[in-house]
Amino acid sequence: xxxxLKLRPEAPEGPVLSELRNGILxxxxxxxxxNALSMETMALLxxxxxRARDDRSVRVVVIAAAGKLFCAGHDLKEMTAxxxxxxxxxxxxxxxxxxxxxxMQSIVNLPKPxxxxxxxxxxxxxxxxxxxxxxxxxxxxxxxxxNGIDVGLxxxxxxxxxxxxxSRKHAMEMLLTGEMIDAQTARGYGxxxxxxxxxxxxxxxxxxxxxxxxKSPTAVRMGKKGFYEQAGLGLAEAYDSASRVMIxxxxxxxxxxxxxxxxxxxxxxxxxx
Length: 273
Description:
The protein is an alpha/beta fold. The protein contains eleven helices and ten strands. It has two domains: 16-213, 2-enoyl-CoA Hydratase, Chain A, domain 1 (Alpha-Beta Complex), CATH 3.90.226.10; 217-263, Orthogonal Bundle (Lyase 2-enoyl-coa Hydratase, Chain  A, domain 2), CATH 1.10.12.10.
């Protein structure tokens, strides 16, 4: 295995750190203690994702965090300050949620897999961030919640991502009670993929990222897009959509090369075409 890429910086310099190595782009929320999704943080994350979209050197994106909290959601102090605006904050709130919605959709629509590496608390929009990622590897001390209800604010936008990961009954239980769930419960619900001891988080996340980065970028790009497209369709429409994706994939150079390499018992040489 290649050198393990550290997911937690020793000397955080926030609010978002970026490091690219061996095709793996690690974006670290680095504004402890809350690692809140302030407007600045969301803008920086959005800019990094926009750059990664067309950067051929980026194969996988990992979103991690410094400190004991992965992400506590929106910056409520920042939002509350705008209640003094002439419109009581309405325009600012609209901008905040529009910015957040664009960011979350950018993760889903990014043509590269995004992996959440969570070692701590992920609440409200922080839990939404985890739910939007394609994979989530977490430690056994990670906890998750959508507890806006506790302060009189139902987590409606986080519920969009949450309800696309777990059952409606489980989602509504979390949304209505505001109670946190532990890592194993989150795995049972389908919110996360793996639960590991904290000391193995870097190693396991890197293993996943390296494995994916070694695959054909063409197949990964088409496959991720096709997966999410068919998920929202009826059965017949889903098969039609998936078939179109597979035909396009089959006609791509990487598929031709991969099949030829398999038949010829050699390692494929991916070009991303």
